[in-house]
Amino acid sequence: MDHTASPAAPARPETAARPSRLTRLRDSDLAHSFRAHPSAMLAAAVLALVALSAVLAPLITPQNPYDLAALELWNSEIPPIWQAQGQWPYLLGTDTQGRDILSAILYGSRISLIIGFASVLLALSVGLSLGLVAGYLGGWVDNVIMRVGDVLLSMPFILIAILITAIATASLPAGLRDVLAAPILIFAIAVPSWVQYARTVRASAMVEAKKEYVQAARLIRVPAWRIMLHHILPNCLTPIMVAATLNFGLAILSEATLSFLGVGMPPDQPSLGTLIRIGNQYLFSGLWWIVVFPSVQLCLIVLSVNMIGDWLRDALNPKLR
């Protein structure tokens, strides 16, 4: 009996390998816009350098400015290294307590960046949540949240922050005031800042809540929290990303302002604002480097953040594509 071989199954066409997430990000419109924007690339490089030097401050600085035992008064008021009386390793000089200015700037930058980032993150979380609830539910819930926001907006930002800081500091025991100075600052900056995020998300949520895909999700009884998180929130992220980037620079400036006014970080844990406040007392006595170099560092950080925010606003604007 003749057995014939059954025909072989047709070979499956080879499918192209899916590009990795890193490849998709590198080839995205946002990455292309970033590479075509020299000022944004420069600002990102400066900000990355500042953040990296702040993180590595214990390894690259000649002293720990927070360790009072490491300060030596006979090394006080040394000018920068390029002047006649400059001394190694104090590249930018020292202050009246013998604290190395470069070390204080790097450690102070760490505090300013952490407080700025944490306050923006806290305000963003509160603003996103309240804005989604107000825009999706509407009614009396929307009225209550927005009226509270209107009250906060009717008062000066810095006044609210000073009141919160002063009340929190006065309510704490003396031993905890310096320990909790950073969390108090984060809370004080975040409280008046969440309103902008809430108003932005509320406007987008009100528009999205009236669209057909949201109405269809309601008809099939999808939970409200799932609709808000998985359907409405992704369509609100673009303006929020731009606002958060720009507010990061404002949060750093707010921390510096509060510390400059004496209601921020204590002198033994100086942020950039505290260093500027201390140095301002000796500006007209010839010790210019104590206030000039921390001020330059603060300007570099805020300018870099604002330049990145301006680029991100243009890159995510569909009318400019």
Provide a descriptive summary of the structure in words.
It is a multi-pass membrane protein. Keywords: Cell membrane, Membrane, Transmembrane, Transmembrane helix, Transport. InterPro entries: BP-dependent_transpt_permease, MetI-like, MetI-like_sf, OppC_N. The chain has about 325 residues and is mainly alpha-helical. It has a single domain, classed as MetI-like fold (Orthogonal Bundle), CATH 1.10.3720. The protein is about 65% helix and about 0% strand. The chain contains 15 helices and no strands. The chain has helices at about 20-25, 30-35, 40-55, 55-60, 100-135, 140-155, 155-170, 175, 180-190, 195-210, 210-220, 225-230, 235-260, 270-280, 290-315. The longest helix has about 35 residues, at about 100-135. The model has no long low-confidence stretch (mean pLDDT about 80).
Index terms:
single chain; 321 residues; mainly alpha; MetI-like fold
Q: Identify the CATH homologous superfamily.
A: MetI-like
Q: Do you know the CATH topology?
A: MetI-like fold
Number of helical segments with 4 or more residues: 15
Structural shape = globular
Distance between the termini: 72 Å
Radius of gyration: 27 Å
Number of strands: 0
Q: What percent strand? A: under 5%
Oligomer: single chain
**H/E topology pattern:** HHHHHHHHHHHHHHH
| pLDDT averaged residue by residue | 80
Largest sheet: none
As residue ranges, the low-confidence spans are: none
Number of domain modules: 1
What structural class results from the helix and strand content? Answer: mainly alpha
Q: What would CATH call the architecture?
A: Orthogonal Bundle
Broad CATH class: Mainly Alpha
Helix content: 55-70%
